[in-house]
Amino acid sequence: MKLNKIAALSSVALLSMGLAGCSSSTTTPKPKNISYSQLSSYKSRKKVINKDLAKKLKKDQKKAKDGDDDYNYSLYLYKVQTWEDQTIAVNVDKDNYMNLSTKEKVAVGQSIDTLVKKTLKENHVKGKNIFITIYDEDGNILVPAYNYVTLKFKNKKDQEEANVPVEYQNALDKAQSYSDNMHMSKQGLYEQLTSEVEGFSKKSASYAIKHVQANWNKNALEKAKSYQKNEKMSRNAIYDQLTSSVERFTPSQARYAINHLPK
């Protein structure tokens, strides 16, 4: 999967770049690291630019959802920079993005809305009107000075995955392996993850159980087939085994398995 980057600057970072004296007035002195362009066409262009971007994002999202490899995670081909000053945000150009330090770039995976909120929270910024500049993956400006509150740019599933701690992801990967290969029950998986063997925390295990891709009925059936074929067990014995403290399937899952066993 291609990883791109999202650039984020909080008001605190902006102050360190010499923007502390900037205001929304067009007479504000120009910061040395930001070049200006004319403001005259901004208002008329903003609606068109935002509308076009919205269409592109929606189109890309559909292609990604349809499994088009060229568009997977295409929602994250955009970098975002936050500004406290609208005039600066409107006029920032490509050179500014290219000058951002590595520290000011955040790994892919967060929606613009989440990224901005995270940046504001980390820098204790409250009650301020923040604007964002959206760049494409080459640093070209797509949308200048979009108020982050109004930007509808969310993909909840990918957003959540991006913020997952490493241990949570490891627990999920382990749970997926157990489910796919050993066809374990939901409770069985949880107990295995939190056992001395695996040693995951309860929170990590709970996250894994919540997000693992598993069909518990089918897991019970696969486990039942194994007992039937390899252990030569009767249906009643298989049911008891599935609902025992060893396998931990629910009665309904065990019944599903028994009802779908080969005759």
TrEMBL record:
Residues 167-212, 215-261 form the Putative host cell surface-exposed lipoprotein Ltp-like HTH region domain. PROSITE patterns: PROKAR_LIPOPROTEIN. It holds the Pfam family Lipoprotein_Ltp. Gene3D superfamilies: Winged helix-like DNA-binding domain superfamily/Winged helix DNA-binding domain. Residues 1-25 form the signal peptide. The keyword Kinase does not apply. InterPro entries: Ltp-like_HTH, WH-like_DNA-bd_sf. Keywords: Signal. This is Putative host cell surface-exposed lipoprotein Ltp-like HTH region domain-containing protein. It comes from Lactobacillus helveticus (Lactobacillus suntoryeus). The lineage of its organism: Bacteria, Bacillati, Bacillota, Bacilli, Lactobacillales.
